[in-house]
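Issue 218. Parser rejects a valid record. Input:
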Amino acid sequence: MRPSTAKAVALALVALAATGVLGFLASPAHAASNGKIVVALDFAHGESHKYVNYIVGNLSSIASFVLINNSITYDELKNVDVLIIGQPRTSFSSSEVAAILKWLQTGKRVLWIAGDSDYGSGSNVQKIVNSLLVAINAKLRLEYGSVYDNVHNAKAFYRVLGHVSPDNLPGYHTDIISQGITKPVLYHGPDVVIWQDSKGQYHDPVTEPFPGLIRIVWNYNTAYIADNNPPPLVLYDPTVDVNRTFVMLAAEVHDDDLVVVSGESPYGDYEPTWSWMYHGVPLDGPKFVTNMIKWFKWWVTSTTTPKLETPPKVDPHTGKPISTTTTTSTTSTTSTTTTHTTTKPTKTSPATSPTTSSPTTTTTTKKSNKALIWGTVIVIIIIIIVAAALLAKK
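Output the parser choked on:
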């Protein structure tokens, strides 16, 4: 091969490595070259646009926004880091669920889905949210009820105030969420977050946390649960669960993704969480939503997934962590341990609520992606070696 030909081939191989293969490795949208993440806001399921202009305008330095006005497809999501679905009023089609699943399987994604109370048409929103959470094999759910507070509110018991107190889990950098937060956030006509295990039983995230759970926004301990419309409550009891705290917004580590569930929406709604003042009550809604997006940016750009941690159990009436450790009941002939705790029986799902049967989700796609990436790295190395050899012949 003539020196000029060898040089041309070598340069072509280097260009291929730089623009083609390396371009493939950079194709996920995790922090674009401008340092921003891509956040999609869903409007394809009857969500309101209230305060969207404020969110997009104020967060333009850390995120680029995509508004989804038609059905959700994988092509629309493939370059998106964060998908926020605020109070969906119409159900997701099977193709939309498949698109969201495929998107989540690409790794390091964040899905934030928001619900509503069971007042009026809100009960349908709860069913839609829970159905999607079942379909993606998440643990978090919305209770089929409403939460009220006669003390900590914005001049009405249903305009509930929440306090931003994320679990102190250093591996998850939850300190980002609470930075600069000094005032409550608004949850107007909200619901609360619970979780469901693989056997279909429901649990209180306040007293029964699981590994990978991150509790972020709480009621004050003057709140109480209510049941307005079918389906019935699946966990809490209006005659028992009074003057206590609930979880208003929580996240779960889902493989290396984050699934965030809240009882109200950051945008849309009658008065969304972005609100900075309501009926004369000053709020930290804009700071909170901004911090959440900053936290999402840390998550999707991090090169590792933190080890699963279990947050502490919390006394629902005092709001303080429970220091005692619950022991597992075992039969022993040498000693007996007595634990003085009161645990309410866990209710199981009624026939009308979503079941735990869901499309089988595996990590095959993520594993194959990792294998493909390593294979691509090897190809790049070979290309560079061949190019160097050809240049050496010049």
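Fixed in the parser; the record now loads. Confidence is low (pLDDT under 50) at residues 1-29, 325-373.
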